[in-house]
Amino acid sequence: MYKDGKIYMGLDDSGNEVTMQLNMSNRHGLIAGASGTGKTITMKTMAESFSDAGVPVFMCDVKGDVSGLASPGVPSESMEKRIDKFGIRDSFEYKSYPVCFWDIYQEKGHPVRATVSDMGPELLSRILGLTAVQEGVLNIVFRIADDRGLLLIDLKDLRAVLNYVSEHRAEYVASYGNMSTQSIGGILRALLPLENQGGELFFGEPPLDIFDWMRTDGNGKGIINILDSVKLVRNPTLYASFMLWMMAELFESLPEAGDLEKPKMVFFFDEAHMLFSDAPKVLVQKIEQMVKLIRSKGVGIYFVTQSPGDIPDGVLAQLSNRVQHALRAYTPGEQKAVKVAAQSFRVNPAFKTEDVIMQLGVGYALTSFLDEEGVPGMAQQTAIICPQSLMGPVDNVERLKRINCDGMEKYDDGVDNISAYEVLIQQSELEEERARLEKEKEEFRKKKEKEEAAAAKKKEKEKEAEEKKKERAAERRKAQIERSLISAGTQVLKRGLFKTLFK
Questions:
Q1: What is the pLDDT of residues 327-369, one digit of tens each?
Q2: Domain boundaries, the chain
Q3: Where are the alpha helices (DSSP H) in 99-256?
């Protein structure tokens, strides 16, 4: 509940109000506790307060129950008792909040899309877990695509360019550097898990304008953007892709803000351990860097998980506002987790922190928030205030109603514009057509040469026949002349002989 410029979180064990300073809420935070101890209720209560303060909110709905923010709460005996306990009878009302539903898988909300170019080779390399050599090759591929005017929008664009570069790498080695087929093949293989997890739905157009998550309604309340993550958290590569893209987009889009009276936006990431589980070191480092830098942009990030130990130390150190619900310690590992959680709080001499963490009931938490000067407060046992919206999930009718009237329908229909894939397909078809024409030209040339050779051979034969005919005619004339000569000689000889005999 938001009142007097502060977020009312609940009552301590002395009955005093426990509040979080709105101007310190961009210092990030942690909500931790065992399953069933009230983490989701705390997260919803904080989201309601931020919305009432005019701060847009983004939430990952891992179990589906966060969606209840779209419907008013339902009165019950236990709720009425808690309202009286917190002394908020005059200000409390069961109400819904301005909610906008999103879903990367396009099933329970508006699609969330980004382009491959927006992601960039650096983030993509970290998501895919590429080696330094493979990352270098991917940077070259992006550069070639940029130089050739090939738009990288979706994964089929990236795959098409990778295959193109592999086939034509000899043409680019001198200008861009060496690119082995093994490295390109490794990148193509690394894309498979991302594609299988739904990457073809996330990468595309129209891309999300991050400022559409930073809206308020007509009454000045911050819009609560809820990303259905029931399916998403089971696909860690895509989950990490989305989160890194989102933080990078915010960091690049927002100017430096300095100290603000209230954050520009607040993010809640439920089941955060799924984000960091088995994550590559470079990925964790990138998230840590983003968390450090994004605070100065006026953005607060709150991780929700079972134990502080689920969060890498570098990230955990940046989480100044803390709510620790109960932890159970039945094993040495669980006891260690309790000790880690206790050490993350400023010591309160009134109690032993480790013992309190294990004894907290449902709806109670150990809290520590920054004061007006940015100093962490001492740990306090706090009864967390109840939410004003529905405890459980929203029904499908109300969800659909919100989806149809929130003004974000521009994202509903995907657009497959002409990009690298289409250009390269067309180029390949042109090359095939050119090759076909060249083949036909060569076949025609060979046919013509064959015909010319046959004609020349025929002409040569005709010439030879003509010469032979002439030779035969000449021989006949020669023989005739010889016969004539012989005949004439015989006659002369006869006349001479007669003259001699009858002289």
A1: 987 788 788 888 888 888 889 999 999 999 999 999 899 999 9
A2: 2-106+214-411, 116-201
A3: 116-128, 132-147, 155-167, 169-176, 181-194, 200-202, 236-253
Q: How many helices (H) and strands (E) are present in the chain, helices listed first?
A: 16, 12
Of the candidates 410, 408, 325, the one whose C-alpha atom is nearest the C-alpha of residue 360 is 325
Write down the residue that tokens 């459980």 correspond to.
392
Backbone angles phi, psi at 90, to 5 degrees: -75, -25
Average pLDDT rounded to a whole number, residues 284-299: 86
Residue type, 122: E
Q: Burial level of 486, CB count in 10 A (0-12/13-18/19+)?
A: exposed
For the CA atoms of 193, 198, 201, 203, what is the dihedral angle to 10 degrees?
-30
pLDDT tens digits, one per residue of 140-193:
999 999 999 999 999 999 999 999 999 998 999 989 998 999 999 999 999 999
Q: What are phi and psi of 265, to 5 degrees?
A: -165, 150
- 265-269 and 299-305 strand pairing: parallel
What is the homologous superfamily of the domain 2-106+214-411 according to CATH?
P-loop containing nucleotide triphosphate hydrolases (3.40.50.300)
d(CA 118, CA 120): 5
d(CA 303, CA 315): 10
Question: What contacts 4, CB < 8 A, 6 or more positions away?
Answer: none
Phi, psi (deg, nearest 5) at residue 386: -85, 150
**pTM for the predicted model, two decimal places:** 0.84
Instruction: Give mean pLDDT, residues 390-416.
Output: 93
Rg (CA), the chain: 42
Query: CA nearest 22: which of 369, 468, 272, 405?
Result: 369
Length of the chain: 503
